[in-house]
Amino acid sequence: RAAVGADGALLLNGNFEIHKVNFIEKILATVLAKVSNFIPEGGIWMNTQRPEWNDANNALVGNGVSMVTLYYLRRFLDFFEGILEGQNDEVKLSAELATFFCGVTAALKANEGLIETGFDDVQRKAVLDALGEPASAYRLVIYNEGFSGAFETVSAVEIRTFAALAKAYMEQSIRANKREDGLYHAYNLMTVDGDAVKVSY
Fold first, then answer.
1. Which helix (H) or strand (E) holds 49?
2. 146: left (phi > 0), else alpha (psi -120 to 50), else beta?
3. Most buried residue, 39, 53, 108, 191, by CB count within 10 Å?
4. Per-residue pLDDT for 59 more than 80?
5. 77-118, pLDDT tens digit by residue?
6. Rounded distance, CA 132 to CA 163, Å?
């Protein structure tokens, strides 16, 4: 900062340049951070020790799973799809985020058949692990090495397909969280039991 001023606080990439990304990458990074913590039929796992205000008040950090966050994310994906509607262009993403995106998309596609049948506890953990592993790899690379400065292209169609598939998972979870009185669960608790993840209301 002494040498270049306020820009010295910004993240540099492997070329020792300020790492600049487009609007779609910023939105996609936010969405992927949430989707990678998705527990089917449970919500978004509050495991980061950086909870939202409501989650902190409800003491949900660690084992809490937020359907509230999932409901907002479901609505946000509608907004995201709207931005990309009708676009067939290539979107330039940081190479590291492109890898993260492809890993999460592959995990969703590999387990797509379970949307219709529902998830047992073992399948639920398998999906959670499959989504979490690309996120973990992404974080480790960025924390340890930073952004390389390389970019890859992903089509807008691929991003729309991802958003639609993620929404399908979320809608199944929303149906599973509808109560007998017609209202919906807001928060759940998750328990890891070996190769299984149990969800309790």
1. none
2. left
3. 39
4. no
5. 998 888 888 888 899 999 999 999 999 999 999 999 999 999
6. 17
Q: How buried is residue 131: exposed, middle or buried, by Cβ count under 10 Å (0-12/13-18/19+)?
A: buried
Burial 41-51 (b: 16+ CB within 10 A, else e): bbbbbbbeeeb
Are residues 49 and 11 in contact, defined by beta-carbon separation less than 8 angstroms?
Answer: no
Largest CA distance in the chain: 63
Q: What is the DSSP string of 148-166?
A: -S-EEEEEHHHHHHHHHHH
Return the amino acid letter for 189.
L
Return the H-helix or E-strand segment holding 46: none
DSSP letter, residue 15: T
- pLDDT of 52 higher than 80: no
Task: Give the DSSP letter string of 86-150.
Answer: T---EEEEEHHHHHHHHHHHHHHHHTTTHHHH---HHHHHHHHHHHHHHHHHHHHHHHHH---S-
Cβ atoms of 54 and 133 within 8 Å: the answer is no
The whole-angstrom separation of Cα 19 and Cα 149 is 7
